[in-house]
Amino acid sequence: MTAPLLDVRNLSRDFDVSRPWLNRKLEGLEKVYLKAVQDVSFSVNRGETFALVGESGSGKSTIARLIVGLLTPSAGEIFFDGQSLAQGLSGAEARRLRRRFQMIFQDPLASLNPRWRVTDIIAEPLRVFEGGMPAPARRQRVGELLTLVGMAPEDGVKFPHQFSGGQRQRIAIARALAANPDFIVCDEPTSALDVSVQAQILNLMKKLQQEFGLTYVFISHNLQVVRHMANQIGVLYLGRLVEVGTPARLFEAPRHPYTRMLLDAVPDIEMTGRRRKKVEGEIPSPLSPPSGCPFHPRCPLANDRGRREMPLLLDGVACHAVEEGRTRP
Amino acid sequence: MTEPLLSVRGLTVEFPTRHGILTAVEDISFDIMPGEVLGMVGESGAGKSMTGNAIIGLIEAPGRIARGEVWLNGQRIDSLPPEAMRAIRGRRIGMIFQDPLTSLNPLYRISDQLIETIRTHLPLSQDAARKRAIGLLDDVGIPDAARRIDDYPHQFSGGMRQRVVIALALCAEPDLVIADEPTTALDVSVQAQIIDVMKELCAERGAAILLVTHDMGVIAETADRVAVMYAGRLAEVGPVRDVILAARHPYTAGLMGAIPRLGENLVRLNQIPGAMPRLSAIPPGCPFNPRCPRVMDHCRSHRPALSPIEPARKVACWLYPEVTEA
Ligand SMILES: Nc1ncnc2c1ncn2[C@@H]1O[C@H](COP(=O)(O)OP(=O)(O)O)[C@@H](O)[C@H]1O
Ligand SMILES: Nc1ncnc2c1ncn2[C@@H]1O[C@H](COP(=O)(O)OP(=O)(O)O)[C@@H](O)[C@H]1O
Ligand code: SF4
Ligand SMILES: [Mg+2]
Ligand SMILES: [Mg+2]
After folding, report:
1. pTM for the structure as a whole
2. Domains, chain A, ordered by start
């Protein structure tokens, strides 16, 4: 077995959400930290897709931003191709690694400069990483990239607002591919799109992965989409991984009570008539997370241990009940 | 046979613009029976919200109902003066929108808003209205309703706010609730809760629902029948199970194939090429013809009318010999 391309170890990220210093002094308040990501570990094999799924606020985007270096970890390490990213790489080395990974966001319009023509947007990574490339070669490459994502080279002269949401996401994908990366972090890339357009983009992403051997970290709140895209799935709840597994294992035999609840909540579009268990309660505030297991206030299997002790991710699941072999309340 | 609760006939909504008249909804007809849940599904821009808004008289100028009729319980309501329409909204038709803050004023306590709406429509004292409001909040699953009723909207989570909106929509015992993307802003687990509450409470009270959403899953969970919209027109109407498991219109079939499933792992999703046309560029003939895998010459010049092809199913597609020209 080859080593994983990405290895995330005990990653945590806190956000300081305290009131301003003066207010704190006057009102005698402590600093307040929001633990957005806590002790998350997973690895991603070359050419595969690791999906992170969870409801809003579960820490998905924070993990994405930590991986690509838009945020620094509060604790933990990220290894890319065996090298630690957190340890402040030296100039040339950092540059070489940086060009190997890219990110795609949910809202392509926010990530595409509205005043630039599509050609210039897609060529930007080429200017950064291949400054020596002559202009005609660059134009040629942009044309190839546009064709690759199912658009026409002539589309390059237009501006982002002249395209539909799906086409803009194609442009964002073309830009991500420009510098020949081997790793792309995709944060809800189809969540703003209609289902028929989503299908086009998901098919395109799978095709590109095959063609170029790309490795994806694919983030979505949509379980069906994740099922379709992933080789491995990690389920997040309040900043922690509660279960990790292959789609077959996770969807056919979910073990964590939260995974089961989440799957039960997915609408039954196959009209199998399966009866849903009612979803209990709501996600607590991340500012005052529950003691012990973060899921215990909503968990039908919670016991005293769950109220005191944080379950560890063992054999792909972080749950005392699973650990103790209890499956019924 | 019972009469339909709501009957929409040939509804057409137009927007005059500098470049000519845009038709956002064209010649739409459907019925909703008392207590029935009709899902209206389609991709963004298909005209779903416009249809719902036309029914409740909330088309913003310069948009207007150009043709067609809307009947509620045997009364024609599309031509009512604004005050009469205002009395129908809230009293006979309750409304739930995607963003709870469309319905809730952030500056007022929940109690004020519920009690005011109740007293606008029902002859109740302040105390009786408050009692009724607490009962409703309890019904929609707000814990500790008697205390929480005096909170402000921002003191509730998104899911709890949408529960309050459901209480508000139901507080005058309407016959029909129009819910426009009621769960679209919510997480899947909260969505499941809101669907349950909405379905249960409307069923208990015998209220019909027009459920507008882009999400076929929500329709599958909720609706009795479904109307599929494409480019301002109805493509297919039928019992939800029939449409989902055996779509007749190529657009519906394409849409169903594009949805990833939990139960299977396909290498590729079905792909409908292109995108829904803008209002200014709806092609002649069948509006779906440039994207249709089964298009025939006839489709490019003749517009199919929504026509019955099975006892409970209507389709607008030339593949079916029963279909007539629009
Ligand atoms: N810059 C920030 N400052 C403070 N809190 C943040 C910041 N970014 C994210 N958070 C909080 O961290 C948690 C995780 O957020 P996020 O990673 O965006 O979740 P997701 O992408 O799963 O919806 C949330 O509670 C969010 O409010
Ligand atoms: N004020 C307006 N002027 C012109 N066109 C409009 C206006 N409001 C909406 N539309 C158009 O009407 C069409 C139908 O919109 P809508 O009913 O909101 O779609 P849906 O709810 O199905 O997403 C869209 O193409 C939209 O762009
Ligand atoms: S009428 Fe013709 S183009 Fe339209 S959906 Fe039917 S077969 Fe396709
Ligand atoms: Mg996010
Ligand atoms: Mg709408």
Report:
1. 0.94
2. 6-100+181-323 (3.40.50.300)
